UniProtKB/TrEMBL annotation:
InterPro entries: TBL (IPR029962), TBL_C (IPR026057), TBL_N (IPR025846). The chain crosses the membrane at residues 42-65. This is Protein trichome berefringence-like 7. Residues 140-413 form the Trichome birefringence-like C-terminal domain. It comes from Gossypium arboreum (Tree cotton). Signal peptide: none annotated.
């Protein structure tokens, strides 16, 4: 209303000024021309004509002002509506330098694998550790370890997936250990050393009755041996219609975080003689994308039928951007700084399938769409600074590093009152 009044007041002020100028002009006009007029009647006609011209000018001015004023109201309304319904997508933004990072020292965390501790393995520049993710239209809550540990008291968190899932699992443990005074109160429940060869690892925070588990399941569905009478090239199979037999161990949890994708490649499948199977049928001609979607649909059926949605919150992290280069993507060059552009790596066919499948589910599942944010981080990979320095690695990440940001976002979502902080 105030805006309308101001527009109207402005318009009538201009009209009043116009009216005064016309009257002044008419007075001068009459005085000048009356000297040459033959009679007073001619002067009267001139004045009437000027008055009619003034009235016509007022009408024209009104119709000229009114169309400009009308859209201004509509534009304001739309803009206000957009502000009210706009939602932040926390996975779109940029990396900015931040000297308060890293949040921990991997060398002082017994649950960080030697293969991911790039500094210990000889990396001299530590700039890759000092970048913070800044979403476009919102903020990630600053990491408050004491508050988080207090809210996670008595909870069980389960990570399921491949080695990138194990990296995130290790990152979360190292982050949370910063709030534990006596580090002896944090231990692997079976006394196992952290290694990629063990299918199950569980770390217990005894002071908080908090357990964080990792289950290695690279396909989420069951691996199998080659069926009888299968072609010689078939060495093993991936049973697309059967979820991993360890899935019964995942159910009793408060938070379930899945990932998959890095083993769904020709080199991990066909080059190793591993083909797809559904029931008793080999699917020798099935493509990887179709097979991955079928496996995810098997996972969906399990979630819908087995997960207690009143207790368990489910997350699925999308494909993590890698930075292999070269014609065959077999060369690894780790940069000193993040890329300024994503160079097309902010999209992934695997990620697109995950998003498409999840949005059709009835059980709420939060997608951690990390693909775009990781696309910039060509500087943060293990490279040649692993425990096997002869083999370059542009898939896995150094710790501390990018997986810590995944966990900052994940923890803020886990602890939000409504279950999801952003979309």
């Amino acid at each position: 209303m105030l805006g309308n009044f101001e527009v109207e007041q402005c318009s009538f002020s201009k009209l009043r000024q116009f009216h005064e100028r016309v009257l002044s002009f008419s007075d001068r006009f009459v005085k000048i021309h009356c000297k040459h007029c033959v009679s007073e009647s001619i002067s009267a006609l001139i004045v009437i004509g000027l008055i009619l011209s003034f009235l016509l000018a007022m009408v024209c001015t009104y119709f000229h002002v009114f169309p400009i004023y009308q859209p201004a109201v509509r534009t304001y309304t739309v803009h206000e509506s957009d502000d009210l319904v706009a939602k932040c997508n926390i996975f779109y933004g940029k990396w900015i330098p931040d000297e308060s990072y890293p949040l921990y020292n991997a060398s002082q965390c017994p649950f960080a694998e030697r293969g991911f501790d790039c500094v210990v393995n000889g990396r001299r520049d530590r700039g890759y550790q000092k970048w913070r993710w800044q979403p476009k239209n919102c903020e990630i809550p600053r990491f408050n370890v004491q508050e988080i540990l207090g809210k996670l008291h008595g909870k069980r968190i389960v990570f399921v997936g491949d080695s990138l899932s194990r990296t995130q699992w290790e990152s979360m443990i190292c982050l949370l250990m910063q709030g534990v005074q006596d580090k002896r109160n944090v231990y692997e429940i079976n006394g196992n050393k952290i290694t990629k060869r063990i299918r199950f690892l569980g770390v217990y925070f005894s002071s908080y009755n908090l357990r964080i588990d990792f289950y290695r399941s690279v396909f989420l569905v069951q691996p199998g041996s080659a069926p009888r009478h299968a072609p010689k090239r078939v060495k093993s199979t991936v049973k697309l219609d059967k979820l991993d037999d360890m899935s019964k161990e995942w159910i009793d949890s408060d938070f379930l975080i899945f990932n998959s994708g890095h083993w769904w490649t020709p080199t991990k499948l066909f080059d190793m003689g591993r083909y797809f199977q559904a029931g008793r049928s080999l699917k020798l001609g099935m493509g990887i994308a179709s097979a991955f979607r079928t496996a995810l649909e098997t996972w969906v059926s399990w979630v819908e039928s087995s997960v207690n949605r009143n207790r368990t919150r489910v997350f699925f992290r999308t494909f993590e951007s890698s930075h292999w280069i070269g014609r065959n993507r077999n060369s690894c060059k780790v940069t000193r700084r993040p890329w300024l552009k994503t160079k097309g790596r902010d999209h992934s066919r695997i990620s697109d399938i995950i998003i498409d499948v999840v949005k059709k589910m009835t059980t709420p599942v939060t997608v951690l769409h990390v693909t775009p944010m990781g696309a910039f981080r060509s500087d943060a990979h293990v490279g040649t600074w692993s425990d096997k320095q002869s083999v370059a690695d542009c898939s896995h990440w150094c710790l501390p590093g990018v997986p810590d940001t995944w966990n900052e976002i994940l923890l803020s979502m886990m602890l939000s009152k409504d279950g999801v902080t952003v979309q």
